[in-house]
């Protein structure tokens, strides 16, 4: 019997208990053993729950019980989740987690601790919720060199952008709706300001390139500046706007990671990922492009990924951690200024004087133009951030919107 402890009995924690119970017989025949939830750590009591008798309030009960070989951390937040994870690993217990903040901030140290103590630290549920993307990146792409990853990594903002596009609604209206549906938190900053997606893309970049970049060091732009005017004009041009986490290794070996809204053509499969779904495109040298798609959040999908990690360990308890990352230094990071893409711009045009010819003179190649209501919206050819900034300095027009194009 494998005795496990769950840290946190909120959405994902209770979902994990539910998945382990619902699929118990299938799980037992798969691992040839039983998984027993011995403890559940939470501040609250759950007298109505079938697991009421497993609730404990003191982490030391779990830490000091040699029978518990595996801890599933689903508390959220950096502390005490990190502290409990580290202590569990040091005590020789495997740890699995859904906590992207802990993995993105303390991943190097926790992986090292796991290695030092002959146990494993797994985090499939930390990116893409229930979508199996971490394990394929850890194992199945090892024969390939990963060129780039682009992902819709945040379900809440994808829901909001889908609503803005389909129903022509304003940002504030869809935010209230997302909060009412329980997708967005009362304080929605982590989602709408791109911080959640930043934590997820640095985890994917570390898996791809071996270097963990601090989420604070990457260019991060959320969706708070996306206007209904931008959504409407992008739709008229046949494009969608999505919040994308992007990472790539440039020719000299440096890594770029960023989060920003992107204008996506219908030819890119990410443009068709709507509602709370996530999608991740992995581009490699041998396989070309692979897409992972599914439910990136929610109780049972995320819990399913936590349980997959539990079962991985239960099936092969003697397996050691082999994953290790190093911290990215400033020299490892490609500067945002050199990043090249097309640009969707909306400028003021009250006198109607800016037409395609004027734009060509100012910005070079121009792909599409819509002039309406005192504005001009257009898409430029590919140019670096630096080049664009220089060109925008030379215009006397107000920039209402700037969204990078994703090819
Ligand atoms: N707030 C996150 C999202 C939850 O909306 O995707 C899953 O990480």
Fold and architecture overview:
The chain is of the alpha/beta class and 407 residues long. It has three domains: 2-129 and 299-327, NAD(P)-binding Rossmann-like Domain (Rossmann fold, 3-Layer(aba) Sandwich); 142-294, Dihydrodipicolinate Reductase, domain 2 (2-Layer Sandwich); 337-405, Alpha-Beta Plaits (2-Layer Sandwich), CATH 3.30.70. The protein has 14 helices and 20 strands. It has helices spanning 11-22, 24-31, 59-63, 81-90, 100-116, 134-140, 155-167, 171-180, 189-192, 195-209, 228-236, 299-315, 356-363, 385-393, and strands at residues 2-7, 35-41, 55-56, 68-73, 94-97, 121-122, 146-152, 211-212, 219-220, 240-249, 255-264, 277-284, 288-295, 326-327, 340-341, 343-348, 366-372, 375-380, 383-384, 399-405. The strands form four sheets. Strands 7, 9, 10, 11, 12, 13, 16, 17, 18 and 20 form a ten-stranded mixed beta sheet that branches. A hairpin with a 5-residue loop joins strand 10 and strand 11. The longest helix is centred in the N-terminal third of the chain and has 17 residues, at 100-116.
Q: What attributes does this structure have?
A:
407 residues, alpha/beta, Rossmann fold, Dihydrodipicolinate Reductase, domain 2, Alpha-Beta Plaits, 10-stranded mixed β-sheet, 6-stranded parallel β-sheet, 26% strand, elongated, binds L-homoserine
Shape: elongated
CATH class of the largest domain: Alpha Beta
Catalogue the unreliable spans.
Answer: none
Helix segment tally? 14
- Please tell me the overall pLDDT: 97
From the 3D coordinates, which CATH architecture of the largest domain would you assign?
Answer: 3-Layer(aba) Sandwich
Helix content: 25-40%
Total count of domains? 3
List how many beta strands DSSP finds. 20
* Largest beta-sheet details: 10 strands, mixed
Rg estimate, integer Å: 23 Å
The CATH superfamily label of the largest domain reads NAD(P)-binding Rossmann-like Domain
* CATH third-tier fold name of the largest domain: Rossmann fold
* Terminal-residue CA separation: 51 Å
Indicate the proportion of strand residues.
25-35%
Bound chemical compounds: L-homoserine
Helix/strand-derived category reads alpha/beta
